[in-house]
């Protein structure tokens, strides 16, 4: 488990349980993290770990042990597999290079079955398109053509009938957070609560209060007119597929703008990062953007801001 940190509505976990049931073996879930990582801050990690705490409890209720592994993911996962005689490995999907490289390194170190499931996109990234799409207007027809095939209800994660043969240690979550060697200059926030349960509550609130006016209110900074799903989607506490299914079930489909953002635009971003290996640099820009930047490079500007001024707003 790396990108999609939830129990229900999680295709990677669903597939992992199907494999475990087929082979009549226990099912384990691992999450790896770097406890010493100055590029992370306490605001991010507090949200992350408090959400994971809920996920771990829900997994344990399903007789699925959860393991929190501190250290290099490649080494920790490989070691866990070897020590515990694991027969198959399933992971979720991220298009980012750090995760893609991690998956390749793990695959090179293990000799068991290794499956990757796209539990984040409604249409798996490798199915929606075979190349980088130029824009939403080229991607949209491909999505709309096959979306009904993938916009299906999820099987439930059941109580796993095969007990673990591995010792499971309790996790002191407060101690984990207190021992982090990360950036504390960005403070924690208290106006948002992480987790799968809260994400589902927010979905109900959005359907009942915000969805019908989303098209008119979403760009008005004076109104709380957005869905506020972004952190929950980013941390994998809710799936875009379950959101879309709930909207259709409630017949709340008059505002096509939201589903456009949730499905086409969001999954287009994954398409860009997956197929464009220079997504995080100037080299990843399309030629027209490079030409435009170069032609205006020496334009006179009314204000010039330093990097410090931009960072400090």
Number of domains: 1
Order of helices and strands: HEEHEHEHEHHHEHHHHHHH
CATH architecture: Alpha Horseshoe
- The strand order across the widest sheet is 1-3
SSE-based structural type: mainly alpha
Quaternary state of the chains: single chain
Query: How many strands appear in the DSSP assignment?
Result: 6
Strand count, sense and closure of the main sheet? Answer: 2 strands, parallel
Q: Which fold name fills CATH's third level, the topology? A: Serine Threonine Protein Phosphatase 5, Tetratricopeptide repeat
Note the gap between the termini: 36 Å
Indicate the percent of residues in helices.
40-55%
Strand content: 5-15%
C-alpha geometry:
globular
- Which CATH first-tier class would you pick? Mainly Alpha
**Which consecutive residue ranges, at least 5 long each, have pLDDT under 50?**
none
Counted by DSSP, the helix tally is 14
Rg, nearest Å? 21 Å
């Amino acid at each position: 488990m790396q990108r999609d940190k939830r129990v229900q509505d999680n295709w990677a976990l669903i597939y992992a349980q199907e494999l475990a049931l087929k082979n009549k073996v226990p099912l384990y879930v691992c999450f790896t993290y770097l406890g010493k990582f100055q590029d992370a801050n306490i605001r991010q990690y507090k949200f992350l770990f408090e959400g994971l705490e809920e996920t771990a409890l829900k997994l344990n209720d399903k007789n699925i042990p959860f393991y929190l592994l501190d250290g290099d993911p490649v080494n920790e996962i490989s070691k866990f597999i070897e020590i515990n005689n694991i027969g198959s490995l399933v992971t979720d999907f991220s298009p980012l290079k750090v995760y893609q490289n991690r998956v390749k390194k793990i695959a090179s170190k293990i000799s068991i079955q290794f499956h990757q499931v796209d539990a984040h996109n409604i249409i798996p990234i490798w199915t929606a398109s075979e190349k980088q799409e130029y824009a939403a207007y080229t991607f949209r027809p491909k999505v709309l053509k096959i979306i009904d095939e993938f916009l299906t209800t999820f099987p439930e994660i059941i109580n796993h009938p095969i007990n673990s043969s591995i010792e499971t240690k309790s996790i002191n979550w407060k101690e984990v957070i207190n021992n982090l060697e990360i950036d504390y200059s960005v403070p924690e926030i208290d106006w948002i609560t992480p987790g799968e349960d809260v994400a589902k509550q927010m979905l109900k609130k959005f359907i009942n209060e915000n969805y019908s006016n989303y098209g008119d209110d979403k760009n008005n900074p004076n109104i709380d007119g957005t869905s506020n799903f972004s952190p929950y989607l980013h941390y994998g506490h809710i799936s875009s597929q379950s959101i879309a299914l709930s909207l259709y079930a409630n017949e709340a489909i008059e505002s096509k703008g939201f589903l456009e953002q949730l499905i086409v635009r969001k999954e287009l971003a994954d398409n860009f990062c997956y197929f464009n290996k220079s997504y995080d640099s100037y080299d990843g820009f399309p030629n027209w953007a490079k030409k435009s930047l170069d032609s205006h490079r020496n334009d006179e500007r009314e204000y010039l801001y330093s990097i410090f001024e931009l960072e400090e707003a």
